[in-house]
Amino acid sequence: MTEKPPLTDDQISALAGPPPSTPPAGRLRDRICLVMGGTRGIGAATAIRMAEEGARAVVVTGRDAATGSHVARQIAELGVEAMFVPADVTVEADVEAAVSTVVNRFGSLDAVFNNAGYQEPRALIHEQSDETYDRVFDTNVRFLAHCFRFQIPAMLASGGGTLVNNTSVSAYRNPYTGLALYNASKAAAVTLTKSVALEYAPQGIRINAVAPGRVVTEMLNSVLTDMPAVAKTLPLQRMGRPEELAAIVCWLLSPDSAYVCGHVLCADGGFLVS
Q1: Where does the chain show beta strands of DSSP type E?
Q2: Which one of the listed residues 176, 182, 200, 259 is annotated catalytic?
Q3: Phi/psi at 76 (nearest 5 deg)?
Q4: Burial of 155 (0-12, 13-18, 19+ CB in 10 A)
Q5: SS3 state at 134
Q6: Whole-model pTM above 0.85?
Q7: Domain range for residue 60?
Q8: pLDDT interval class at 1 (50, 70, 90)
Q9: Exposure winner among 36, 39, 127, 241, fewest CB in 10 A?
Q10: Which residue has the higher pLDDT, 83 or 219?
């Protein structure tokens, strides 16, 4: 498959409308924040929004040191302490090391966005291999179990915290064939989020999820052949921007959503009701 060129600003605006105007409101003031999978797309936009919302420090992880370091520099330019930690989200030791790095450097872990996803090449289920199955579920489900295993004890040690997991509307509905593994893995991620939220809410840890619909990212651009046509099928007649999802994630992580727990916020332009 020939790799598509990156979308231009004009193309993004045609798909998703103008950049959103949602001014930061200090929602994460003085928080120590971590984005697992924060080098591009929704993860990078959220890391930057955390800094804009007043975080004391923002740590991003990923496999690409160049893009991760670039995001860290953008955060530092906002006057917030930033760090990039190389990590493969499918490797348990990398997740543990990322959490340990944050706690050792800053003394606590207050707010986390667990952002990782892998969508298999489209094919009917009988054509998919065990290797593909493992990669999809390792990235979309096992990763979250690893995050919970290390992030939750770090939060318990300092009296609580908030977590948001990135899932997908595909957990509920996906009109495209050939993505059964992705759909099933995201449904598992939703159920895992709700179950763990129930377990730890009494201990001061609030866990929610965001389920994006069609958001203009590199990943979506790589898998959709006609993005303008898809955008027009949505009730809002447009796709979303990573910055819009970032604002939602930061709200879910903040005291403004203090009574929201075990919830999956579907940000999808009306996809699920169309």
Answers
A1: 32-36, 57-62, 81-86, 111-114, 161-166, 205-212, 264-267
A2: 182
A3: -60, -35
A4: buried
A5: helix
A6: yes
A7: 26-273
A8: very low
A9: 127
A10: 83
Choice among 138-152, 225-239, 258-272 with the minimum mean pLDDT: 225-239
Nearest to 217 by CA among 142, 163, 166: 166
Tokens at 130, concatenated: 């065990």
SS3 184: helix
DSSP state, residue 268:
S
Q: How many domains does the chain have?
A: 1
Task: Judge contact between 167 and 185, C-beta under 8 A.
Answer: no
Task: Note if 182 is an active site residue.
Answer: yes
> Does 218 fall in a domain?
yes
The two structure tokens encoding residue 187: 């449904």
Q: Is 160 left (phi over 0), alpha (psi -120 to 50) or beta?
A: left
Q: What is the mean pLDDT of residues 64-90?
A: 97
3-state secondary structure of 156: helix
Please report whether residue 11 resides in a domain: no
- Under DSSP, the state recorded for 91 is -
Judge whether 5 lies within some domain. Answer: no
Return the CATH number at 66. 3.40.50.720
pLDDT at 2: 52
Instruction: Give residue 272's identity as a one-letter amino acid code.
Output: L
Tokens 């670039």, residue located: 70
Classify residue 20: in a domain, yes or no. Answer: no
Q: Do 114 and 147 meet the contact criterion of CB atoms below 8 Å apart?
A: yes
